[in-house]
Amino acid sequence: MSTVLGAGFSALSLVALSACSMSAPEPVEDETLGCMISAPAGFDDHSAGALTLAETELARSHGLLSATSSQRVTNSAATSAALTRMNDKDCALTTVLGPGGADELEDQARTHSKNLYLGVASGHDDFPDNVLSIDFDLVPPAFIAGYIAATASESGEVGTVVSRGFPQAKKILDAFDAGVDLYNDEADEDVEHVKSFRETAVDDRTVADTSDAGKDFFDAAHDSDVDVVVPFGSSAAMGVVTAATEKQQALTTDEPKPDDKGSDPILPKVIWYGAPGAFSDTIIATIEPNIRRGLRSMFPEWPQSKNPDEVAEASKEDPTEMGGFLVADRRYKGTIDNGGVRVAAEDGFLSQTSDAGRSIADLRERIKSGDIDPRKS
C-alpha cells in the first residue's frame, strides 16, 4: 500500500507540530518529495519505521520536504519494485528501512547515481556515495538487556531472539548471554542463577522476520518457563510482543487451574527495541534508537529540538549540497556513548524494582569506562 501526503497534515505531523512549533512551514521553491520504503512490519512497528516516519513528517511540516510518499513492503522483490516506483516519482530523498532491502538499495543507487538515498538500520557497510546511512551499535544495549532481563525474571528463565539478517545478530545474542552471566556472577550466593534460553545453537534464536515466526518463538520460550523476552527485528519482534500481550491478558482474565489457585501467575515481560513501550503492558524496558539525532547529524537544516538528548554533535565536516539538501555526516552510528541509543526502564518496572534505573545507569557507565567490555564478556 502506498500513501502520499501533501498539504494536508497527517496525525503524525500534527503530533510533531504540537511538540515543536505551530508556525506555518516556509514555502518550498522546488518540489522535494520524501519517499520511504518500510521493513516487513510497516510503519506501525513501534520501532525504526514509526520513528523515521514521524521524523519525515516533521521535516515536511517545517518545509524541508514538500510532500511524502510511503510504501510498505514485505520482501526484497517488493523493495526492488518500490524503489523503481519511487524513482519514477522523482523523489528527492528515498529512505529504505531495515536490512532486508539493503542489496536492492545499493543496486538502485548505483544505477541512479544522481539521486539521494538513505538507509536506516540496514547494517550495510558498502553503500555508494549517494547513499547516506543511519545504524546503531546494539551490542552494549543487548548486554544491558540481558542483565536487566535476569533482574526482572520471576521464573529464572530469560530469552532473546533476532530476525534473520538483522545486523550484528550473533554479537547481540552473545552480549545478551554475557549480561545474564554477569548478573549471576554478581548476585548474592543465596540467589538462584538465571538461565538464558539458548537451546543448542545460535540458529535456534534466529528466526524468519515474520509475525508467525516471532509468535512461535515466544510460545516455545514460554512453554520452557521463559518469562522475559528481548526481540530484535521487524515483523518477528511484533509477533513476540503480540503473543506476549495475548498471553498476559489470558493469564490475568482466565479462571486459574485448581493447582494454581492461591498464587499469582508469572506474567510475560518484554524488553523492547524501538519506540518507548507504552503500547503494551508487557514492556518493562526499552532500547531506543535515536533516529532524530542521526538525521540532525546528517542534515543541518533538519528541524531542531530543545531537548538536549536530541541535539547532535557538531559535524567535523563542512556541509555539502547533495540532491538539493545540505549534508554534513554521511554515516551515522548511534551508540550508548554518543547518545544514539539509550536503554530506559518503563515506569511500571521501576516501581516494582527500585534499583532498575540505577542498574541501567551503572552498567552504562561501567561499559563507557571500559570496566566491562560486552564484546569480550
Automatic annotation (TrEMBL):
Keyword DNA damage among UniProt keywords: no
Record bears the keyword Glycosyltransferase: no
Main location: membrane
Family matches, as InterPro entries: BMP_lipoprotein (IPR050957), PnrA-like (IPR003760)
Places the protein is found: Cell membrane
Keywords for the protein's UniProt record, in alphabetical order: Cell membrane, Lipoprotein, Membrane, Signal
Region annotated Disordered, chain positions: 300-319, 354-377
Domain ABC transporter substrate-binding protein PnrA-like, first and last residues per copy: 58-248
Name the UniProt record assigns to this protein: BMP family ABC transporter substrate-binding protein
Species of origin: Brevibacterium aurantiacum
